[in-house]
Amino acid sequence: MKIAIVxxxxxxxxxxxxxxxxxxxxxxxxxxxxxxxxxxxxKLVELGCIYHRIKMDSxxxxxxxxxxxxxxxxxLYRKIRPDLILHYTIKPNIFGSFAAGLLGIPAVNNVCGLGxxxxxxxxxxxxxxILYKLAFRFPNKIFFQNRYDKQYFIENNLxxxxxxxxxxxxxLNLNKFKPSLKKNDSKFTFLLVSRLIYDKGILEYIEAxxxxxxxxxxxxxxxxxxxxxxxxxxxxxxxxxxxxxxxxVEYLGATDDVQVYLKEADCVVLPSYRxxxxxxxxxxxxxxxxxxxxxxxxxxxxxQHGKNGFLCKMKNxxxxxxxxxxxxxxxxxxxxxxGQNGRQIIENYFDENLVIDKxxxxxxxINN
Length: 368
Fold this sequence. Notes:
Elements: E1 2-6, H1 10-26, E2 30-35, H2 41-47, E3 50-53, H3 63-80, E4 84-88, H4 90-103, E5 107-111, H5 123-135, E6 141-144, H6 147-155, E7 164-166, E8 188-193, H7 202-214, E9 219-224, H8 237-245, E10 250-251, H9 259-263, E11 267-270, H10 279-286, E12 291-294, E13 309-312, H11 317-328, H12 332-349, H13 352-367
Parallel strand pairs: 1-2, 1-4, 2-3, 4-5, 5-6, 6-7, 8-9, 8-11, 9-10, 11-12, 12-13
Helix pairs in contact: 1-2, 1-13, 3-4, 4-5, 7-11, 10-12
C-alpha cells in the first residue's frame, strides 16, 4: 500500500513516528511523509520516506490560511493518490480529513491532545468543535491518547463512538530509552522538558523554584526545550532572558538528544495544563526517573500518585513546590523504587510496539 503520514512538523514525524515508519516499510508499504520543511525533512528521506513539503501554520486559527491548507492537501492527495492517510495533530486531523474525505481516501486520525483551543471556552474553541464535528465524519478510525479526550468527543457528539479507540500515545522505544543513573553525586536536579509555552506550566515551575529556594532547598533547577515566541501562547524571549539574568532557572536551550539531560536528572517535572499522552513523561519514566506533574488528563495517564511520582494541582505553584519538596526529601532508595515503578508502567502499557501493532492491525482491516 501507499501510505501517507501527515503532521505539523518534519521534526515531529522523525522523533515520534520513526518506529512506525520503519515497521510500515518492513511490511512492504510505500511511505509518504507530508509536513512543513525544517531541518529534519532531509532525514525523513534518509529514513526511506518520500517527502512532500507543505505550508502549514500550526499557531492559531486563520480562515484564509486554513482554507489554503485544505486546498493544498487536496491537490497533493489527488497527486499522490495514497491508499491510506495517517493524520496527526490538530490541523492535519481537521483539514486533512476534509481533503481525504472529498477524494474518498481512507484515513486514520490520531488526536494527540486537544490543544490550546480547549483550555478556554471562547469563540475559537467553539469554532474548533464545529470543525472537528464536520471533519471527523470522514476518517475510518480515530485514535485518542487518553480516556478523557475520547469521552469528551463522544459526549459532545463529535465522533461516531464505533470508530474510536485509545492508544498509549506515540509509545516509547524501550531499547532506546533505558534506565540510567547519574554519573556523579552532584546536587539533586529537577528537569522540565518542554517547548517554552505558557500551557506547559513553565511560569508555575519558575514560581515553585523561587518558593523552594526561599525554603533553603539546595538543588539544581533546569529547563530544556526550544523557545517558541511566535506561538499564540509562547513565552516572550525577554521573559526568558530575564529568568536567565536573575539565575531563576538554568536554561539548557534545545537539543536533539534529551537522554543526555535525563540521565543527570533526579526528577522530571511537567506542570502542564492538559496533554494527550506527554512524550516527555514517557521518556522520563522509560529512563526510570521519578516525576512531578499535574493531575490533569494525559499527565495522570502516565503517573500514578505515590507510585512513580507525585501529582499536583493545575496552575498552583505552591502545590507544585510542595510536591517537588516532597520528592527532594525522599531517600535514594525511595527515589530508585519510584523510578523502577515508572519503568515497569512504561513496559506494561506504553511500549512502542503496542502502538505499531495496533496501526498494522487497523491498516489490514481497512485494506480488507
